[in-house]
Write a structure and sequence with these properties.
Layout (H helix, E strand, L loop, with lengths): L7 E8 L2 H12 L2 E4 L8 E4 L4 E7 L2 H5 L5 E7 L3 H10 L3 E9 L3 E7 L5 E7 L16 E8 L2 H12 L2 E7 L5 E7 L2 E8 L8 E7 L3 H10 L3 E8 L5 E6 L5 E6 L4
Helix pairs in contact: 1-5
Protein name: VOC family protein
Pfam families: Glyoxalase (PF00903)
InterPro entries: Anthracycline_SecMetBiosynth, Glyas_Bleomycin-R_OHBP_Dase, Glyas_Fos-R_dOase_dom, VOC_core
């Protein structure tokens, strides 16, 4: 079945060193990398061997000079990019890159939600099915987490734009609720309050691994900074949150095998 409006269909690493990033994520997640070629030459594709799940590019000089730091961004499917961007701006968001066509790939735009968190909206050139997000496959994104300055307003925004609905909530004390959200009936992520002393509002994407301890050890040995974990989560899995060697924040999720 083709992806529906509101699905996460792609993940992209904006980085200061694309080759070093490819080496790092290849070691940690087993991703194979290759140049996309054609009109997107210089854009790196990351794949599991079965399918591509993410991409990577060097931060453009103009964006770097404006202060953009290495970061992971998500692509959300829409039926009409121009209409979606207009709705996002009308709802208090912002447009950072106008709707743009990539021949054979699709039409996309970089936008921000009302709290300033960047993401993309996209309509693919073909009605294929992306499995970049897959809740149980290693090497795929398994969880999408938004830490923001106003969780209630953020969830209302994404609900209005993409139909994401509230799921259950997990109390987090003074931090409020860790609010799960669903897309087409599937729990795909959560919205939570950012810590006052922490980074600005952002998405963190958790990629699946077969062994959280082995992956954490590899990540650290390849230059990652581990900020949290491994920590157990409901359901028996474990997570870490880390920065890659270039400073992009990412998460890993998987079982403990020891």
């Amino acid at each position: 079945m083709a992806n529906q409006r509101g699905d996460f269909i792609w993940y992209e690493l904006m980085t200061s060193d694309a080759n070093a990033a490819a080496d790092f994520y290849g070691a940690v997640l087993g991703w194979r990398s290759r140049d996309a070629g054609g009109t997107t030459r210089g854009y790196m594709l990351f794949g599991t061997g079965e399918t591509e799940v993410a991409g990577s590019m060097t931060i453009p000089a103009e964006a770097a000079s404006a202060g953009m730091r290495p970061t992971w961004l998500g692509y959300v499917a829409v039926d009409d990019v121009d209409e979606a961007v207009s709705g996002i701006v009308a709802a208090g968001g912002a447009r950072h890159l106008p709707p743009t066509d990539v021949p054979g790939v699709g039409r996309f735009s970089m936008v921000a939600d009302p709290q300033g968190v960047l993401f993309y909206v996209m309509r693919g050139a073909v009605d294929g099915t992306s499995t970049s997000f897959h809740a149980s496959k290693s090497g795929h994104c398994q969880w999408n987490e938004l830490a923001t300055s106003d969780p209630a307003a953020a969830l209302a925004f994404y609900n209005g734009r993409f139909g994401w609905a509230k799921g259950d909530a997990m109390p987090m004390g003074d931090m409020g609720d860790y609010q799960f959200f669903t897309q087409n009936g599937q729990m795909v992520g959560a919205v939570t309050a950012r810590t006052p002393e922490g980074p600005p509002p952002r998405w963190t994407f958790y990629f699946g691994v077969d062994d959280i301890d082995a992956a954490t050890k590899t990540a650290a040995s390849k230059g990652a900074t581990i900020h949290y974990g491994p920590a157990e989560i409901p359901g028996g899995g474990f997570i870490i949150v880390a920065d890659d060697p270039q400073g992009a924040t990412f998460g890993l999720v998987g079982p403990r095998k020891q």
